[in-house]
Automatic annotation (TrEMBL):
Any one GO molecular-function label of the UniProt entry: hydrolase activity
Keyword Hydrolase: yes
The Isochorismatase-like domain, residue ranges: 5-175
PANTHER family, sorted: ISOCHORISMATASE HYDROLASE (PTHR43540:SF1), PEROXYUREIDOACRYLATE/UREIDOACRYLATE AMIDOHYDROLASE-RELATED (PTHR43540)
Keyword annotations of the record: Hydrolase
Top-level lineage group: Bacteria
Classification lineage: Bacteria, Bacillati, Actinomycetota, Actinomycetes, Micromonosporales
Species this chain originates from: Actinoplanes couchii
Listed name of the protein: Cysteine hydrolase
A Pfam family recorded for this sequence: Isochorismatase
Amino acid sequence: MTARTALLVMDVQPAVTDRYPDADYLPRLATAVGAARDAGLPVIFVVVGFRAGAPEVAAHNRMFGGLAGRDLPASPTDVHPAVAPLPGEAIVVKRRVSGFAGSDLDMLLRASGIDHLVLTGIATSGVVLSTLRQAADLDYRLTVLADGCLDNDPEVHRVLTGKVFPMQADVTTVDAWIGATLTNHD
């Protein structure tokens, strides 16, 4: 059986992008999204979101606990307009850091015959790392677009994309992926 590839765009929501200022990031990511669409690859958007009052979050959760009991202003399906989903593209809502945590991502991928994930998103040390680890444990083939990921700590980003991720994924750039992979995608 031939592998089927999907591009995952993770946590690229206005509430997140506003905390990670990088003028070049969204245009570069938009290039990857456009190239995937042109090649007929599914683009799947993964966003973090909670019900009103965030009942899914325990107050003692170090990352999300401050949201418990609060009404959140933005829709969990908001994606930054620079890379917004087209009609019919999947938006998966997750409840924790990994794209798989509390979501139907694995079910969606398996039902679509997808077994190769191309990971992008914010932050490299958050959703990308957590999703990569869980996806590897679920036996997905993985590619990380290093410059399609963003982190507030450039050294952490460098170590993850240069030393940690290559143990479980191919790591490349948006331009190299477009040039090499998309011309002969599977």
